[in-house]
Amino acid sequence: MSLSRKRKKELDKLQKQANNLWESQQVLAGEAADLAREARRQIGNYNREQIVPSVQAGYAKYAAPYVDKSAKYSKHVLEDKIVPTAGAVVGSALSVWDAANDTRNRLSAGKGFALPEGAVYAKKADKYSKDAAKKIAAKLSVIEPAPKKKGIGAGGVIAIILGAAAAIGVLYAAWQTLRADDELWVADDPLRAPDA
């Protein structure tokens, strides 16, 4: 199929326009890649200068006091409540064990259940058990009531942490998107025009 001279000129003119447009798009794509790199750098600076310090200040203001208070209260409960109670339970168990061994030894020797001075030991044991029971009950029942909350609670702290994590995730996703776009803006062969 043969083209007229007029059609050839029109096609050549159209090809030149397409080449000019392609070159201007390559220049525009290069400028857009430069802009994306600068935006990524600015987001990194903003993150370092604004986001990280505000998250650290929020943690120090809202979460750190509760974490410290929780650690102190846990130490108090362990040292003042659990350890003495466990010691009393172990001591009582050892006393029962010794008494059982004494009874077994008396029975095997044929002396029976009665103690030589049974009344004196029975009264002392009864008094000791009542005193020990009162002390243990007093230690277990003296649980300090929770103080009135003055500030943010555990839910608020969790919400702050989740909010900070979400903000970091959004910033990371934006950074990844801008970073990935650098490769999309640059063509393989910037001087070669597309085939018409």
Major β-sheet, in short?
A: none
Element-level helix/strand string:
HHH
Q: Which structural class best describes the helix and strand composition? A: mainly alpha
Low-confidence stretches: none
Q: Any idea what the radius of gyration is?
A: 42 Å
What does this structure look like?
The protein is mainly alpha-helical. Among the domains are: 1-31; 40-83 and 151-190. The protein contains three helices and no strands. Helix 1 (5-108) packs antiparallel against helix 2 (118-141) and helix 1 (5-108) runs antiparallel to helix 3. The protein is rod-shaped, with a radius of gyration of 42 Å. The mean pLDDT is 75.
Features:
196 residues; mainly alpha; 82% helix; rod-shaped
Helices, strands, pairings?
Elements: H1 5-108, H2 118-141, H3 154-185
Helix pairs in contact: 1-2, 1-3
Task: Put the structure in a nutshell.
With 196 residues, the chain is mostly helical. It has helices at residues 5-108, 118-141, 154-185. The longest helix has 104 residues, at 5-108.
